[in-house]
Amino acid sequence: MRSKIILGAVLALTVTTSAHTGAKADELVEFFVVGEGIPEYLSGVAGDPVKGKATAIGRKKGNCLACHRMPVPEEEAHGEIGPDLAGVGSRMTEAAMRLRLVDPKIVNPSTMMPAFYRVDGLHRVAKKFQGKPMLNAQDVEDVVAYLKTLKDN
Questions:
Q1: Partners of 37 in the β-ladder
Q2: Per-residue pLDDT reduced to its tens digit, 73-97
Q3: Side-chain half-sphere exposure of 18, counting CA atoms within 13 A
Q4: Which of 31, 44, 99, 112 matches a 20 to 30 Å C-alpha distance to 141?
């Protein structure tokens, strides 16, 4: 998989997605980074915030609660390593959230946050994730859709 980072004022790019290429759910699709975000849906369609919440708080898939506090009082043991995600939908663009899920090291090379949509250049990868991303393209879109709902009051 290749990713292309575009900095500056370049705005119009085409993204190849699984919807167009027939890629399997755990195969990576090409994406483009524009500024500090990925402006196009990885899967070709918007995510489902209900599925995104389930993925984000699920301990076997997204597991965001391991590092982040979230406005999910029904779940215990929120992490405190990463920033609080309450209000993240008011603070970040959809494109910026997508990039941080895909590969946060593009924005912050020293971050502890794992890349959820990357397979190369990783260390100490669990066997079940070797050669495939932790989240597929639609999972990323679902989590982004959920995070967008977390607005400040």
A1: 34
A2: 999 889 999 999 999 999 999 999 9
A3: 17
A4: 112
